[in-house]
Write a structure and sequence with these properties.
Layout: H1 9-14, E1 31-35, H2 41-49, E2 54-59, H3 62-72, E3 80-84, E4 100-104, H4 122-131, E5 136-142, H5 145-157, E6 161-166, H6 180-187, E7 193-199
The protein binds S-adenosylmethionine.
Residues 1, 35-38, 58-61, 64, 86-88, 104-107, 119, 179-182 line the site of S-adenosylmethionine.
């Protein structure tokens, strides 16, 4: 996702009140993490819809995160924090804190030689092990059939079990708030694939 930053980018970043820090949240509610929030629609709407759950949005591209921050600034939900970072470099205070990870329309990295960059590659699943509190629980959505098949195999090979799955989310009984990419690819006629998996400790 490449984009031009808003003109007042520095001001938006400097005055952001909801960066994640070691204080995290002032309650013991479950913490759900989205990796690669893009422009932030999903994580913001989730935070507004589920006030008794804490949400963390991780985004490695500052120019993309700033768009999300601008949007979140209009609502400032207390249960949402943003971390601008590659998930590989997560801060140590996040160790064993996460209940659920969302992977929404992660970059598919279609070239075989780039498989290690996919967020569902075994190397990333090992990183998620460090983040999860007890049970490991992942929900993934994508428009990309090859990435979907790769991810499903990777997750199952790693010991995850499927709780829910659909190859056509919008014509299923699964309810999930849409992301920007989801709206875009769905409007172009792509079927959205969804898989929810878990792994007991
Ligand atoms: C294709 S976009 C999807 C954005 C959004 N989830 C959606 O569905 O509209 C993927 C996003 O993931 C971010 N991303 C990719 N790898 C990441 C990583 N290792 N850590 C944090 N963010 C990452 C990218 O910068 C990009 O903004």
């Amino acid at each position: 996702m490449r984009m031009r930053s808003p003109k007042n980018k520095t001001e938006i970043l400097d005055t952001c009140e909801f960066y994640l820090d070691e204080n995290m949240f002032l309650n013991d509610n479950p913490i759900y993490l989205e990796i690669g929030i893009g422009k932030g629609d999903f994580i913001l709407n989730m935070a507004l819809s589920y006030p008794n759950i804490n949400f963390i949005g991780v985004e490695k591209q500052t120019s993309v995160a700033v768009v999300a921050i601008k949007k979140i600034n209009n609502y400032k939900p207390k249960n949402l924090k943003i971390l601008i970072s590659d998930v590989k470099e997560f801060p140590s205070f996040l160790l064993n804190k996460i209940d659920l990870i969302y992977l929404n329309f992660s970059d598919p990295w279609p070239k075989k030689g780039h498989a290690k960059r996919r967020l569902t590659h075994e190397n990333f699943l090992k990183i998620y092990d460090l983040l999860f509190k007890k049970k490991k629980h992942i929900i993934l959505k994508t428009d990309n059939a090859d990435f979907y098949q790769f991810s499903k195999k990777s997750l199952l090979d790693y010991g995850y079990a499927i709780i829910n799955e659909s190859l056509d989310l919008h014509n299923s009984n699964i309810r999930s708030l849409p992301t920007e990419y989801e709206r875009k690819f769905s409007s172009l006629g792509y079927k959205i694939k969804y898989i929810e998996v878990e792994k007991k400790p």
